[in-house]
Amino acid sequence: MSNPVNLQAWDGAVNLRDLGGLPLEDGGTTASGRVWRSGAPEPMTPTGWAEAIDAGLTAVVDLRNAAEVKQARALMPGAVPPRELVTRHTPTEDPGDPHFLETCGPWLDHPRSYAPNIAMYPHLFAGVFRAVADAPGPVLVHCAAGRDRTGMITALLLSLTGVEHRAIAEDYERAFRGTTHRGGGVAYDVERGAWVEHRGETWTARQLDERVGERRAALLEWLADLDPVAYLRYAGLDEERITRLRGLLRRPRLRSVPEPTSEPTPRWDALSSPQRAARPAAPAS
Fold it and tell me: Fewer Cβ atoms within 10 A, N terminus or C terminus of the chain?
């Protein structure tokens, strides 16, 4: 299978990967150079952005909340995508919503949050997929770590495309293992009912494998119950965009060329008299 983690494909990029090369349920693989996923792009250097544009990138879809973007830009002033790229900020959640915090807060780094998250904010997810569908060309989708929100959106897109569920789970696992931190930054404390500073955890290889395993199982369970077309319709996405998204990662099918007949088509003057009589008469001039 293709789709390896390559943190240096674009200079400075974090947890970057092309969604090409994944197996489709009806045969073949997804096309490369159409959609990339990553963590926050602020660490990318001018060389990295030039490499991305050379690879065909035309648009960036940022899944982070406004406060996250503001914080990232404060830490790295001037770290913005080049002006020639279309940039859309389309968050997938409302971090100030008590219902979201109660339901998804304990599972922000886990696919168990996916089902309630998409149920709460269909309008936000419609905005994400509208931005992807309307991009002028190849697009980068990212959040902060390039793991959970990005994983949720790309899993929906890959499911819509018809990628094998096993391959979607493997793509998620690569992103989870490719994360440079384990829940560091901020986390929602259920008992205190507030966002708190969180230094993350240090996991042994065995602990990491266990956490990956339980997350893969939860993701596969979610995918088994997911109807991506029905959900996007429910979210308000129109049929034209849904069709565009379904084909975004698919290669164009080659038309089959009919085999030449073994016998040449007879000339008119080679036909017998009854055959000539059966031919329609030429129109009068």
Answer: C
